[in-house]
Write a structure and sequence with these properties.
By secondary structure, the chain is an alpha/beta fold. The protein is built from 14 helices and 18 strands.
């Protein structure tokens, strides 16, 4: 069990433990301690999103890294996947991202990459926690690292993502709406798509430190969908605050989520003989309709735990090259070691251009089953298996589904919320089940909490 790390690094309200400057400094020291190896000169890259507190945490983390005799290379505002790429490109020992992804501006988070550009596994995170708790820092007054910025990171990343698009094609003639969520893609995304010849209309590209993900971006794809219809664009592309997720809108204004993206790209890669192991990795949250659609094509389907790093772990085990989440984290491991919104967008556009089909037609073959997902605020996270009444209710409904639906109940990795997801053939029926299961769980958790008072 990890004490500070959740499903995607350390996250919480800015200026509230553990997301304080003091703890960020300790995390900086811990990552430097963890990845120091031998007497060579070490370096760690640090990037951030646009939220106001990211600048505060950048200074704290850099201070911690340098105090351990390790150099800190500050990249400024860049998407999370850009940090993974630059970490590999610069042969750095580790990468640090300051971001709370799709959360509001007053949240923040700190996540880490290894020197290979992959997110840290649970064991390394537990090791870092132990270093912090035991204050096992090997500082030396004779060794202090230096901090410096490089200005070429944006250009490097833009060229890299463009290079993943088919060199025999361009985007000329396509009208695209980009929603950058007032976040980390606000510079790189318009630059990349325009350089490939697209007619680009950009929204969500005026960050002020407070408006990241505010009624925009991948969490609110309806905004880009409305703009697509309004200006007659061919499609819309919505990134989240740190640029590792992407959600689309087709030319009719319909939302195209991560399950659709996986289905479209899996079918195309399968037809070209490019899908490693003839397998796609998704999570327990992905729609059962996607699973049935892909199996109908003869494509194997593996489910992992929620979180793109767990998807990646499954991909690495089997040598697979396509996986992702319904939320828009899509991993094309031929190109990057983590979810990358821009690369995902270019791969989907590659299919559109190659097959000369509108997005609505490409997405139509994925038969999505009705699905309801609702969050319930809870006082504490009691293990689901300890909620006896809730577990009996879940089992009862799953027996009634008889294989034609499913229920998934899990806690958020970053917030005190219970997520209830129900799939089935009748939308109104599963809406009722979602509410009933959620209320039952909240009441049972409240009783448990009251019993401890």
């Amino acid at each position: 069990m990890r004490k500070y790390f959740g499903t995607d690094g350390v996250r919480g309200k800015a200026n509230v433990f553990p997301m304080t400057s003091e703890f960020a400094l300790l995390l900086g020291k811990a990552v430097a301690q963890t990845f120091k190896n031998g007497n060579k000169k070490h370096k760690i890259v640090v990037g951030k999103d646009t939220r106001i507190s990211s600048y505060m945490f950048e200074n704290a983390i850099v201070s911690g890294i340098c105090s351990m005799g390790v150099d800190a290379i500050m990249l400024g505002v860049l998407p999370t996947p850009a940090i993974a790429f630059i970490t590999r490109s610069l042969r750095a020992d580790s990468g640090v991202v300051i971001s709370a992804s799709h959360n509001p501006y007053d949240d923040n988070g700190i996540k880490f990459f290894s020197n290979t550009g992959f997110k840290l596994n649970d064991g390394i995170e537990a090791e870092m926690e132990n270093i912090i708790d035991t204050e096992d820092f090997n500082e030396s007054s004779s060794e202090v690292g230096k901090a410096y910025r490089i200005e070429t990171a944006i250009g490097r990343y833009v060229e890299y993502t463009k290079g993943t698009f088919d060199k025999n094609y361009d985007l000329k003639g396509l009208k695209i709406v980009l929603d950058c969520a007032n976040g980390a893609t606000y510079k790189v995304a318009p630059m990349a798509f325009e350089e490939l010849g697209a007619d680009v209309y950009v929204i969500g590209d005026e960050p002020d430190g407070y408006n990241i993900n505010d009624n925009c971006g991948a969490v609110h794809p309806e905004r880009v969908a409305e703009k697509v219809v309004e200006i007659g664009a061919d499609l819309g592309i919505s990134f989240d605050g740190d640029g590792d997720r992407v959600i689309f809108a087709d030319e009719k204004g319909n939302i195209v989520d991560g399950d659709h993206i996986l289905g479209i790209c899996a079918q195309h890669m399968h037809s070209k003989g490019l899908l490693n192991g003839n397998t796609v990795v998704a999570t327990v949250m992905s729609n059962i309709g996607l699973e049935k659609t892909l199996k109908g094509l003869g494509i194997d389907f593996i489910r992992s735990g929620v979180g793109d790093r767990y998807v990646i772990e499954e991909m690495l085990k089997g040598g697979y090259n396509l996986g992702g989440e319904q939320s828009g984290h899509i991993i094309f491991s031929d190109y990057n070691s983590t979810g990358d919104g821009m690369i995902s967008a270019f791969q989907l556009l590659r299919v559109m251009v190659n097959e000369n089909k509108p997005l609505s037609e490409l997405a139509a073959f994925v038969e999505i089953c009705p699905q309801v997902l609702k969050n319930f605020v809870v006082s504490e996270k009691v293990p689901i298996e300890n909620l006896k009444e809730t577990s009996r209710m879940i089992n009862d409904y799953e027996n009634r589904f008889n294989g034609k639906g499913r229920i998934l109940v899990r806690y958020s990795g970053t917030e005190n919320k219970l997520r209830v997801m129900v799939e089935g053939e009748d939308l109104n029926y599963i809406k009722g089940i979602t509410e009933e299961v959620g209320r039952k769980a909240v009441n049972e958790i409240s009783k448990n909490f009251a019993g401890k008072m």
